[in-house]
Amino acid sequence: MDWNTLEMTCKACTNCGLCEKRHHVVFGVGNPNADVMFVGEGPGEQEDLQGEPFVGAAGKLLDDMLSIIDLSRESNCYIANIVKCRPPHNRDPLETEQDACIGYLQNQIALVKPKILVCLGRISAMRLIREDYRITREHGQWVEKDGLWMTAIYHPSALLRDVTKRPETFDDLLSIREKIKKLGAQM
Ligand code: URA
User: Fold this and answer.
1) CA max distance for the chain
2) Best mutation site among 24, 25, 45, 47 for ligand 1, i.e. most ligand atoms within 8 A of its Cβ?
């Protein structure tokens, strides 16, 4: 499937109940040819209203985090979510909702073909790295799956709630920058 067909199919999706209350399907943003991809959990209120991932308060922080390592949604990374429609009251997406939606992300990953994939938060890491992933213990560690280097960092919303997690996240960002250099990823 090509990118446009994938995007159009996703934007017309009625695979789960989240389609009923949505204002927008939040497909993703950034450079679909990027070597670095970030995956969050699911759209919040602002993302649902604007149709773009990470545009609320957490998104502003994510943009600042990206700029520390010379990445930006405008040029050299791609940003998507596990589920493309907003779960009510920002609750965690249910397993059934993730199951209904994950194919879109799998296709996005297959088409972007990133060298590095960074999970933003626990939900994304548990879905993409390992079901029993423990973000507090394992954030910043790297695993390689079929040639794709994967890691997870704290979700920007968690960093807004708890600033004591920020120094560790800074180290994780530097580790991502190192990995980009080591793999000769396109900047
Ligand atoms: N949180 C997420 O996980 N994704 C978004 O797009 C916005 C907030």
Assistant:
1) 44
2) 47
